[in-house]
């Protein structure tokens, strides 16, 4: 049964920040609430004050400039990302990711900022945006700051947002030339959260064989979306071949810090990390070669 | 807890009422306005039986705070028919037996409407995607897909 709360509708970002400053940890932000309301109904989260930012049009935007890259306001819905022709053209992996994220109804109301701020290690956007080298902009009443998305996640459902701080924007640099990014999750029912998910980004040189850069991010395989940095390092500067990709996937599986739950054991998650990493590395390499 | 004023339009009718902040949209539709066509089933956002249209897009009314619908236009299953005249989707569902127990039907109809409003000529795959979030525990999906296909093919005009 959901506890009662005091409802505060913020009409501007400034008003939201004022509320956050005033009510601090007694308050919680709600945007689409597609995850939060479930937790509140289960009594796992019981804020005294609920600050509603769903209607903040100030933060509902998708912008792109070649120098600055992509900027997505925090209250932009999943469905808006999925339907954006700009994103489809420049960041197709985000459209793939969104199409497989929950149901249409959830994507219509749920927002990208809410998803990231929820801090669920099984969320889809985390690994993909980290593979894309995303940065998040946050603000409190005094100042704004930016930090890499991979530093935003601290632990299960815990983020770097401090008391009084609001997630404002997700910034994604332009994808470097000859770079492809792939993402896939393993699940039993289509569009459920992944039992494990993997995002991989490969940048090749003009030959298409040598790896200039690699980023591998594991979802639901650690308390946070986790970079497999040793695995990436095995690929950087090397000539790629299937055996090397297999070995890198093996390393990624060693780097995972999986948990066990009703969906999978730790061992099974490690197995899935290896299988999906192999698949995503091969897929992103193949796609990168086509960009030469 | 202080109640707040909720002003919204449901099936073309304007309403003003005071609701507690924790009330969900499904609760207000069913328990305050008496529109029990919208079904409350899993109440966790998993089944989509409670689907309604909010400003033309489908949402799960069990996963939206009623106050977040302030100023919105809502369509529930009661809003599909014009008096005794059923909508093309409703007639097609009847003709194709696209329901068994009927509990998922209101949500299915609204998901199908949202799909056809956006994409009047969907492929079979697009229809499957359009209703994939709506669970039918009688597993009558094929007849539902046939019913939506018939409307998309223009076999059921507005009367």
List descriptors.
heterodimer, A: 292 residues, alpha+beta, Uridine Diphospho-n-acetylenolpyruvylglucosamine Reductase, domain 2, Uridine Diphospho-n-acetylenolpyruvylglucosamine Reductase, domain 3, Enolase-like, domain 1, 3 domains, five-stranded antiparallel β-sheet, four-stranded antiparallel β-sheet, 12 helices, 36% helix, globular, B: 159 residues, Ubiquitin-like (UB roll), DNA polymerase, domain 1, 2 domains, five-stranded mixed β-sheet, 5 helices, 5 strands
**Strand count of chain B:** 5
Distance between the termini of chain B: 47 Å
User: Quick one: CATH class of the largest domain in chain B?
Assistant: Alpha Beta
Principal-axis shape of chain A equals: globular
Give the name of the CATH architecture of the largest domain in chain A: 2-Layer Sandwich
- What is the rounded Rg of chain A? 19 Å
As a whole number of angstroms, the C-alpha radius of gyration of chain B is 16 Å
Return the average pLDDT of chain B rounded to an integer: 96
Overall tally of domains of chain B = 2
Strand line-up across the major sheet of chain B? 2-1-5-3-4
Counting DSSP H or I runs of 4 or more residues, the number of helices of chain A is 12
Strand content of chain B: 15-25%
CATH-defined architecture of the largest domain in chain B: Roll
CATH class of the largest domain in chain A: Alpha Beta
Please, how many helices of chain B?
5
Count the E strands of chain A: 14
Element order of chain A: H for helix, E for strand: EHEHEEEHHHHHHEEHEEEEEEEHHH
């Amino acid at each position: 049964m959901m506890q009662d709360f005091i409802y505060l509708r913020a009409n501007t970002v400034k008003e939201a920040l004022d509320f956050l400053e005033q009510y601090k940890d007694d308050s919680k932000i709600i945007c689409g609430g597609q995850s939060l309301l479930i937790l509140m109904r289960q009594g796992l989260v019981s804020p005294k004050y609920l600050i509603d930012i769903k209607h903040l049009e100030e933060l509902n935007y998708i912008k792109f400039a070649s120098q600055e890259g992509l900027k997505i306001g925090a209250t932009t819905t999943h469905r808006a990302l999925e339907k954006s022709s700009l994103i489809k053209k420049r960041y197709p992996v985000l459209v793939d990711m969104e199409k497989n994220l929950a149901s249409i109804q959830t994507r219509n109301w749920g927002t990208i900022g809410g998803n990231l701020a929820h801090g669920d290690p099984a969320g889809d956007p985390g690994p993909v945006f980290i593979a894309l080298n995303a940065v998040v902009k946050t603000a409190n009443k005094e100042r704004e700051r930016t930090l890499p998305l991979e530093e935003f996640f601290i632990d299960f459902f815990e983020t770097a947002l401090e008391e009084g701080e609001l997630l404002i924007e997700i910034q994604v640099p332009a994808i470097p030339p000859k770079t492809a990014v792939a993402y896939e999750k393993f699940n039993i029912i289509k569009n459920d959260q992944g039992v494990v998910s993997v995002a991989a980004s490969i940048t090749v040189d003009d030959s298409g064989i040598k790896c200039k850069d690699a980023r591998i991010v594991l979802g639901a395989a650690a308390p946070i979306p986790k970079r497999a940095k040793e695995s990436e390092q095995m690929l950087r500067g090397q000539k790629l071949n299937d055996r090397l990709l297999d070995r890198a996937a093996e390393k990624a599986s060693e780097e995972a810090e999986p948990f066990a739950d009703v969906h999978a054991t730790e061992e099974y998650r490690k197995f899935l990390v290896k299988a999906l990493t192999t698949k995503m590395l091969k897929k992103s390499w193949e796609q990168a070669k086509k960009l030469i | 807890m202080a109640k707040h004023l909720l002003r919204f339009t449901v099936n073309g009718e304007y309403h003003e009422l005071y609701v507690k902040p924790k009330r969900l949209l499904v609760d207000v539709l069913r328990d305050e306005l008496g529109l029990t066509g919208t079904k409350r089933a899993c109440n966790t956002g998993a089944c989509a039986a409670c689907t309604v249209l909010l400003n033309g897009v489908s949402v799960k009314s069990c996963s939206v705070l009623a106050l977040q619908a302030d100023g919105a236009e809502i369509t529930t299953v009661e809003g599909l028919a014009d008096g005794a005249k059923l909508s093309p989707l409703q007639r097609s569902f009847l003709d194709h037996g696209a329901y068994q127990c009927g509990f998922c039907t209101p949500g299915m109809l609204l998901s199908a409407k949202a799909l056809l409003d956006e994409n009047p000529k969907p492929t079979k795959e697009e229809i499957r995607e359009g209703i994939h979030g709506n669970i039918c525990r009688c597993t009558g999906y094929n007849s539902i897909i046939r019913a939506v296909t018939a409307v998309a093919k223009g076999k059921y005009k507005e009367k």
